Amino acid sequence: MSGRTIAFRKMNGLGNDFVVLDARARDLPMNxxxxxxxxxxxxxxxxxxxxxxxxxxxxxxxxxxxxxGGSRVAACGNATRCVxxxxxxxxxxxxxxxxxxxxxxxxWRNDHGLIEADMGAPRFGWQDIPLAEEFRDTRGIExxxxxxxxxxxxxxxxxxxxxxxxxxWVDDLEVTDLARTGPLLENHPIFPEGxxxxxxxxxxxxxxxxxxxxxxxxxxxxxxxxACAAAVCxxxxxxxxxxxxxxxxxxDLFITWRDSDDHILMAGPVEHEFDGxxxxxxxxxx
Length: 286
What we know:
17-stranded mixed beta sheet; alpha+beta; 38% strand
């Protein structure tokens, strides 16, 4: 990081890609317009999320997360794993702690060589997701797309895993054009803070297939928190066990919903794509 440029690192988890900025040694301002400029795939670097690393008093790092659409969000599973790998390589530690707006997370490299993160416990209460009205059973809420007597999508499971998710159970992931349906459902009045929208097909008791429209980011090759959300909702509906492989367009994540404390463990590969520099003027810095 020089006076006129700001260094960044481009990383991805299963194609879910990030621009990572290190603001631990030198403060770095961020806002919605800067995030949109960096995330723009035509005019900027292009990514799903922008990650800003800051000092933390109770963890190895604080991870600030911005969607490419400009909104700040509390959780991102694949970014957690990418940052964890960088921190382990930097410090030589076998495991690291990462503070986020959603809480304190821990990550390590597992016996299979994959980066694994403890994403904490899911929240199923309607007010915790949050929903605009009370639903006693969030395993399936009243929401549908299409004709009332023959809906295309209906009765999604909803959960908060650091951010809100709605999972629609389908026999065919192409039953609807998620690029068109996703934005409508993301901004449905039932979700006062918006929601990540997923189509999920149960392939077997230990295998799910998933397609995701990510809130304020769009269609993505992979979404770690969506994989966590689908896994716990499937287990809660007794469609699967508590340990599943979740296949996304970018590859597979391995999710365990731990019985002892209800924490979700997510494991998968990460990739360092390249390093580069952004003009300091983009951040209003000389």
